[in-house]
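Re: that chain you flagged

S.,

Sorry for the slow reply, it's been a week of failed gels. I finally had a moment to sit down with the sequence you sent. For the record, here it is as I used it:
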Amino acid sequence: MKTCIVICSSVLFLFSTFQFVNAQGLLNKIKKQTEDKLLKKTDETIDDSLFGKDENNSDKNGNPNSDGNNSKGEGLIINPPDVLKNIADAEQAFNVKNFGTAKYAVRQAMLGIEMEIGHNILESLPSTVDGLKIVDEKDRVTSMSYGFVGLTMERVYEGEDKELKVSIGNNSAWLSAANMMLTSGTYSSNGDDQNYKQTTFKGYRSILQFDNSSGYTLSVPFGQSSIFVLNGINYESETEIMSVAENFDIESIKTELGEK
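Prediction finished late last night. Pasting the structure tokens below so you have them in one place:
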């Protein structure tokens, strides 16, 4: 019995030693490969510093550099899905019992409808607000194309040192945050600790927040699952930001979204 224990212990010791040696060898191998790569990268950096890159993005030997920096391409052409075409595709696929294709086409049609709704809402917003003009390239419509929940629209107005950002949508994260503050009823007697308050905007219970870096933010939940958020930077007071908010028609947005 003692002999068996001694043999087993020796085997375990040898196995552990073998594992350690293998692991140590593997670590040394990885370390060596890492050092080689670092040395190669350092050499390439030194070569670039000494010899530079030519106008064709080539190295000192005239070979094109493959450092992952793309220098050509116009990007993607982004067009909303064609609603009518996708509805026709869905009907055709359904008739031949190709349900996977039919489901995909229906979702694409829903996405197209949501994108159309989003663009219509942006077009219905004022062209100027408080003397601030639309920054066209910042207009954004995003949809998750899932049950008409997840549609968001953004528009930015700028002028002088002021900025207004309008965000509208069926966004569960925004809505949950606003509703939590509406139901908490928390207030502090110390004004420095109270960075939000409950208020009313056009008959809707709302939240008005203030932050030294991001300014005033008015959040207005409406309908069953939608929210209107207005962020104003460099506005002097809550009276001023609430006056500016009057330029936006919640009821027309609610109607466009199909909210009750």
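What I noticed first: The two ends are 84 Å apart (CA to CA).

Talk soon,
D.
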